[in-house]
Amino acid sequence: MQRIIDPFAGALRDEDGAIVYKVTEGEMSRFKSNDEETLKRLYEMRKATSYEPWDVDEEDEEAFRQGLVAELEDNKSPFNIDDFHAVLNKELGVFGKDDKYSVTKDLKEAY
After folding, report:
1. I need a surface site. Which of 56, 64, 72, 111 has the fewest CB within 10 A?
2. Helices (H), 1-111
3. pLDDT digit string, tens, across residues 67-86
4. What's the rounded Cα separation, in Å, for the pair 36 and 43?
């Protein structure tokens, strides 16, 4: 039961209390970090999709959020804005896809 609540309960810790974890070669091979061709392909992909730096103060959270939304709307990010809209509608949407507002239904559900 303790492992479910705190998965690092039995982990080694250093003198400051930080968890010590040793990465093995087998774990790194899953990420193909030793494969030269994979690394070259990733580098070329990153270089081809390089983005210009933002003129946003990193301490200004609202400006940072607006910068993220602007990149999404302009399709400059690797993410698809339609995916975000679908998740937001699913999680925060009041009405379903085919639902329409009904005063009667609203009053019945309220009382």
Report:
1. 111
2. 2-5, 25-30, 36-48, 61-73, 81-92, 103-110
3. 888 888 887 777 788 888 88
4. 10
Confidence at 1, pLDDT banded by 50, 70, 90: very low
- The whole-model pTM stands at 0.34
Q: How far apart are CA 82 and CA 88, in angstroms?
A: 10
Amino acid identity, position 43? Y
For residues 97 and 106, what is the distance between their CA atoms, to the nearest angstrom?
A: 17
Domain ranges of the chain: 2-110
Task: Output the six-digit token pair for 31.
Answer: 């990420």
Query: Could you tell me if 56 and 63 are in contact, meaning their C-beta atoms sit under 8 angstroms apart?
Result: yes
Residue 106 to residues 29, 97, 109, 110: CA-CA distances in angstroms? 56, 17, 5, 6
- Helix, strand and coil percent figures for the chain, each rounded to 5: 50, 0, 50
